[in-house]
Amino acid sequence: MTLPSPATGDVSREADATILDNPAWHALTGPHAHFALGNDLVRKYPDDVAPFLAVRTWDDPAVWDALIDLVGPGGEVGFSGADPVLPPGWDVMWRGEGVQLIETPALKARPDEEAVELGAADVAEMLAIVERNQPGPFRPRTHELGRYVGIRREGHLVAMAGERLHPTGWTEISAVSTDPEFRRRGLASRLVLDVAFHIRERGDRAMMHAAATNVNAIATYERLGFALRRTTTFAGVRTPVDASVART
């Protein structure tokens, strides 16, 4: 697959690379600090909020022991933006390539009059639409990370999008879903623009992540006014069952 060139121009120059290269860490030490479990080296969201773990720096050899302490022996760890060499006893569960997209001045964000805000009372429907469409991880309390909106048809939730990672100055648009029978009607694009509008209203900028193989979605986001900032890696690993194997 051929990916577009990274964004250049004002938006790229304004982007804080330290934040965008490690967005989960800057979310869990910033606006999402009240969700954080861990310490000053590794942090994670509660399991029912999000499966993401963040590391301050992979250059510190103490990070591996800290991860074991945080998730336990045989625990599953999901991370993005890095591809470290695993110590003995650690197992790769899955790995994939992804892209990070950021808004450009071409993004014409606007509110959508049909978008309805979703919350705790809608969790069952939110989990169901994610299960049907597989846009990425979504847990029973993911909706607490930010504003989620949807579009209903005859009372049924048929499209959704919302806010996930929130590093300082940026908010990630995520969980973009449209049921198959309602696709090609622009519903997902409308919701992305609505979410982006409210992100901008509070002074943040919008960002997104997508699997590199999801070329149709990436093309749609680029038409809306997002641009590739960088490619990235998504991975899941399992800590050693015998924690003493990996202790440094």
Please give a structural write-up:
The protein starts with 9 loop residues before the first helix and ends in a 10-residue tail after the last strand. The model is unreliable at 8-15 (pLDDT under 50). With 248 residues, the chain is an alpha+beta fold. The protein is built from seven helices and eleven strands. It has helices at residues 10-14, 17-20, 23-28, 63-71, 123-133, 187-201, 215-224, and strands at residues 37-38, 42-44, 53-55, 76-80, 91-103, 116-118, 148-153, 156-163, 170-178, 205-211, 226-238. The strands form two sheets. An eight-stranded mixed sheet has the order 4-11-5-10-9-8-7-6, with helices on both faces. A three-stranded antiparallel sheet has the order 1-2-3.
Radius of gyration: 18 Å
In whole angstroms, the N-to-C terminal distance is 40 Å
Helical content, roughly?
10-25%
Strand content: 25-35%
Return the string of H and E elements: HHHEEEHEEEHEEEHEHE
Strand order, sheet with most strands: 4-11-5-10-9-8-7-6
Shape: globular
| Secondary structure tally, helices | 7
Structure class: alpha+beta
Low-confidence regions: 8-15
Question: Mind summarizing the main beta sheet?
Answer: 8 strands, mixed
User: What is the number of E strands?
Assistant: 11
Mean pLDDT: 92
